[in-house]
Amino acid sequence: MSKDKTSSITLTRPDDWHLHVRDGAALQTVVPHTAAQFGRAIIMPNLKPPVTSAAQALEYKARILAATPTGTEFEPLMTLYLTDNLPPDEIQRAKEAGVVALKLYPAGATTNSDAGVSDLRKTYATLEAMQREGLPLLVHGEVTSPDIDLFDREAVFIDQQLIPLRRDFPGLKIVMEHITTREAAQYVASADSFTAATVTAHHLLYNRNAIFMGGIRPHYYCLPVLKRETHRQALIQAVTSGSAKFFLGTDSAPHPAHLKEHATGCAGCYTAHAAMELYAEAFDASGALDKLEAFAAFNGPAFYGLPRNTGSITLQRQSWTPPESFAFGDAELKPLRSGEALPWRLV
Ligand code: NCD
Ligand code: ZN
Ligand code: ZN
């Protein structure tokens, strides 16, 4: 990485290892934002209905590529949505189709998770096939029991689900997605090389106060929900530690503004419009800009067994203000930090 201490940094072109782009007209807005910054992005399969076959994943990929601006080199990396009855023989087809991973949503845990897994044991034959084929399992790591406090759901998931799963499938690559707690950071840091985690920019920049600053702020509501400051600090420590187990996953999750500003507002923060700018802000605030390149461009490809991107991006210390909103099909999309100045800018 070349770095001019105060004013700009140049990095190998990064990848986003956790992204929601939705479908239909929405693609026209969100795909260009990601393609302008990243060489590749792992596309989450939580559409309605979910992406559960290799054939559906290929069709979805073609729609995403059709929304990619001409002349932009961008590769969507496709995933399948694990259900209680996704057949083991779909794994071979998925591998042949270039699908890179399967996603575990515990039923009811998050946006569009009704088709998710009700009991991990029901998926064991499929997990066996994944372990054999070398296809990673990406995990939304929260238990869903209403008895468990919302803020504890990630830590309880690790104890109740992840530790037994890790033991039963020692050769399965597992990524704990969008980690939010000290417990998750510690678990992943001390786990074997088959275990990794993605971290979002918003969980590095904000603690749970952001959701309640001067009134309820739906655009800061995502799942797993923002946690207290000590957890944010643990995440910062993890991503700036030099450990290769942590890599960039924005979890940029667009929803129409009217469904977020709602009595039962949807979970998800939209950050694709300024993803690298937000990460640069977080790393810079802890004096660790020199750790950003490995987190954003090296650790992910190494875990997935893919080459690093060629080419580079440059971020400049230059204040700019994202728009209040973007068109989002017939609706509006309000990006995180809309109308508020950001200190870094992609040039
Ligand atoms: C995501 C979405 O909207 O699809 N929402 C979120 O709050 N993160 C789903 C997810 O990643 O859990
Ligand atoms: Zn999730
Ligand atoms: Zn997500």
Q: What key attributes describe this structure?
A:
single chain; 347 residues; alpha/beta; TIM Barrel; four-stranded antiparallel sheet; binds zinc ion
Description of the molecule:
The protein is an alpha/beta fold and 347 residues long. The chain has one domain (14-308): Metal-dependent hydrolases (TIM Barrel, Alpha-Beta Barrel), CATH 3.20.20. It is 32% helix and 18% strand. The chain is built from 11 helices and 14 strands. It has helices spanning 26-35, 54-66, 89-96, 124-133, 153-168, 182-190, 201-205, 229-239, 257-260, 275-285, 292-304, and strands at 2-4, 8-12, 16-19, 40-43, 75-81, 101-104, 137-139, 174-176, 195-199, 246-248, 312-320, 326-328, 331-333, 342-346. An 8-stranded parallel sheet has the order 3-4-5-6-7-8-9-10. Strands 1-2-11-14 form a 4-stranded antiparallel sheet, covered by helices on one side. Strands 12-13 form a two-stranded antiparallel ribbon. Helix 4 (124-133) links the parallel strand 6 and strand 7 (137-139). Helix 6 (182-190) packs parallel to helix 8. It is globular and about 50 Å long. It starts with a strand and ends with a strand. The mean pLDDT is 97. One zinc ion is lined by residues 110, 140, 177-178, 223.
Condensed summary:
This protein has one domain: Alpha-Beta Barrel (TIM Barrel), CATH 3.20.20.140.
CATH class: Alpha Beta
Mean pLDDT: 97
Low-confidence stretches: none
Rg is 19 Å
Number of helices: 11
Helix-strand blueprint:
Elements: E1 2-4, E2 8-12, E3 16-19, H1 26-35, E4 40-43, H2 54-66, E5 75-81, H3 89-96, E6 101-104, H4 124-133, E7 137-139, H5 153-168, E8 174-176, H6 182-190, E9 195-199, H7 201-205, H8 229-239, E10 246-248, H9 257-260, H10 275-285, H11 292-304, E11 312-320, E12 326-328, E13 331-333, E14 342-346
Parallel strand pairs: 3-4, 4-5, 5-6, 6-7, 7-8, 8-9, 9-10
Antiparallel strand pairs: 1-2, 2-11, 11-14, 12-13
Helix pairs in contact: 3-4, 6-8
The structure holds N-carbamoyl-L-aspartate and zinc ion (2 copies).
